[in-house]
Amino acid sequence: MPYLILTSQAKLVNTYVCGPIVVGDKNADPKLMRAIGAKLVTNYPACGSPPLHLVYGHPRGVLEKLEELGFTLIDTSVAGDCRECILWTVHSPAGFADPNSKGSQTNEDEDKGSISSSQRSSLKERRSSAKKSTSSARPSLEKNNFEEEQENEEIAEEQAPEPS
Fold first, then answer.
1. Tens of pLDDT along 13-25?
2. Do residues 95 and 110 lie in contact, with contact meaning Cβ atoms separated by under 8 Å?
3. Cys-Cys with 71: which of 66, 84, 145, 148 at CB 3.0–4.6 Å?
């Protein structure tokens, strides 16, 4: 299957701590699970639970590993209120497609979890264009609130009529 769903508990509002991130069940692609450092456990979230692949770490780190492997973030969602569960959906490249699906190809590079040089250059191009579009589309996000307030005050002073 070309999609992977990651889920983690949101421990605090807007703060995701290092913790177990569920990245697959017992039928998940073992090559991919090894590539992202997932461990198969049977006692999460409670004893007797079905086997799940977990990664212990910060969600951003896991998403960065997946991006390096050529995955693309498709969607982010919060289940329940903001303190319960967060989900990320990522799309996989052809190298990590379900081996049981028609048309999947395997070779030594795919077994190692690496991507081709053309995929790597495409990924670098997407990253650089995303950085450019993010910085040009939302420049105010790079400034802190104090700087933004100062700029707003300066603009208001410039636009105010001079006393006569």
1. 455 566 789 999 9
2. yes
3. 66
